[in-house]
Write a structure and sequence with these properties.
CATH class: Alpha Beta
Keywords: Cytoplasm, Methyltransferase, Nucleus, S-adenosyl-L-methionine, Transferase
EC number: 2.1.1.85
Strand content: 15-25%
Structural class: alpha/beta
CATH architecture: 3-Layer(aba) Sandwich
Family: Belongs to the methyltransferase superfamily. METTL18 family.
Distance between the termini: 42 Å
Mean pLDDT: 83
Number of helices: 10
Subcellular location: Cytoplasm; Nucleus
Largest sheet: 8 strands, mixed
Shape: globular
Strand order of the largest sheet: 1-6-5-4-7-8-10-9
Helix content: 25-40%
InterPro entries: Methyltransf_16 (IPR019410), SAM-dependent_MTases_sf (IPR029063)
Order of helices and strands: HEHEEHEHHEHHEHEHEHEE
Length: 330
Amino acid sequence: MKGAAFTFDFLAQKEGAANNGPSNPLTGQNGADSAVPKETVKSFAWVENIESRILNAFDSGWALYQYEEVPLSGEAYVRSVRESISSRKELQGTDLVPGIYEGGLKVWECSIDLCRYLVENDIDIEGHVLELGCGQGLPGCCMLKRIAERLSSGDQEKTSLVGGTAPFGVVFSDYNEFVLTDVTIPNIALNVRDSLERTRLQSLSQYVTMGFGDWNAMSEQLLSKSSACPPNIPQDGLFDMILAAETTYSSQAASDTAFLLAKHLKVNTGVAFIATKRYYFGVGGGSGSFNAALSSVSLPNVEFNVETLMVFDNGAGNIRELLKVHATAV
């Protein structure tokens, strides 16, 4: 999917990247195909040395990164690095290569919808948050900014570790490792710069976890309490909040999102926010596909409730929706 069919990325036009890349980067055009995996990834791994990576990105700061400042509500904003900073030039302007690249370098409309909702409604972080298919990770960055504000205020009660691990934090998951390193980590650094001094970044890194690869493999690790999981992952593999934006772009992706949510959202106390288009023309998926998939999930004594929080319809493009999901014991 590229350019002429439809474009997900609403910031790409600003930097002229939407129509410049090859339609299929795996053909070797531009001589850069060696940087992209050639087969579907079925494994999952955790990013190491997050603290040093965030520090390096923080030190690089304004001098290195081209970024957008996207207004959210009032004076609030979220910063997003441009796709062009990535070393994967062969993927720029490409929306998706199924099983190889899932579009994580771009900023998608629905991720901004979700960020705006989190800020306007003053959604705070009260436990462990998982952002599925995070890409640039902007919703997760909005939640991390809340942690940064706590650290900056010196609120020991709200930031103290329990048994050496954080009682809350954000897990960023994406299909591609280079997405996390090229854009997600720089976004974290850019978004906490205003509220957190460098000396406190070491503390912030204790609340950040990142993983890349296949969702099913990730789920197996989380639920099996694998020793491969970082120590600040919830021991039961269940999350207080799950965030997902534009992860329902096909029927299969919508189904995967629904099943991951069903397996990893805390019953009764957990909440998930799914930002999606109502329908993705040409590829299926959307809110209807997600709702149908979630309705088909059968868990003993658990019922899923989906509420449509917001509908965005400007009459000129795809209708977008923001869904809220609860799992209730019955």
